[in-house]
Design goal:
- This protein is an all-alpha fold.
- The protein folds into 2 domains: about 5-50; about 60-165, Arc Repressor Mutant, subunit A, CATH 1.10.10.
- About 65% of the residues lie in helices and about 0% in strands.
- It contains 8 helices and no strands.
- Helix 3 (about 60-75) crosses helix 5 and helix 4 (about 80-90) packs across helix 5 (about 95-105).
- Residues about 130-135, about 145-155 and about 165-168 have low confidence and may be disordered.
Length: about 170
């Protein structure tokens, strides 16, 4: 099955090929150019499409994805390894990534990075004066590295950001 917008492009190019009278010497060259034009126009049309594929979710998969998320948030000092998480979740790595992104809006690694940065902000906000250049065991980046990107955050805001119910 081909999308109607793509079929329209194919029909236009085919119509040009059929109706155009080309000298036999240039016929192969003409067909090659039309083939390249067809590929180019199809790619341009595909680039315009902005639809995201949503996959059907069953309750067991949703529960598994939430468990994976909780595991990641319990151990922020360990970067996520997709293959290991997929084995623990009894899913393929691609399915795990796809479902995680569909539910939470980000890939597992992006979600982890956002949480780690928020954790860094929290540590700096609450402990910066006590431990100026300390490395917190839960976030192995020196706090001085985080300082330029910090915004004052309260622990309530952090809790709201990462423990609020996610809308499906």
């Amino acid at each position: 099955m081909i999308y109607p917008s793509l079929q329209k492009i194919v029909d236009e190019i085919m119509e040009e090929i059929i109706t155009e009278s080309v000298d036999e010497t240039f016929e192969l060259f003409f067909l090659r150019i039309k083939a390249e034009e067809l590929v180019c126009r199809l790619l341009m049309e595909l680039e315009k499409r902005d639809e995201q594929h949503l996959y059907a979710l069953n309750i067991r998969d949703i529960q598994t994805i939430y468990k994976v998320k909780e595991q990641r948030l319990e151990h922020p000092e360990i970067p996520p390894v997709i293959k290991e998480l997929a084995v623990c979740a009894n899913m393929s790595p691609s399915k795990l990534n796809r479902l995680f992104k569909q539910i939470f809006g980000n890939s597992i690694f992006s979600y982890y990075q956002a949480f780690a940065l928020l954790l860094c902000k929290w540590f700096v906000y609450h402990e910066y004066l006590k431990h100026k250049d300390a490395v917190h065991p839960a976030f192995p980046i020196p706090l001085r590295v985080c300082k330029p990107v910090l915004l004052p955050l309260s622990s309530e805001k952090i809790a709201q950001k990462f423990h609020q119910p996610i809308q499906l």
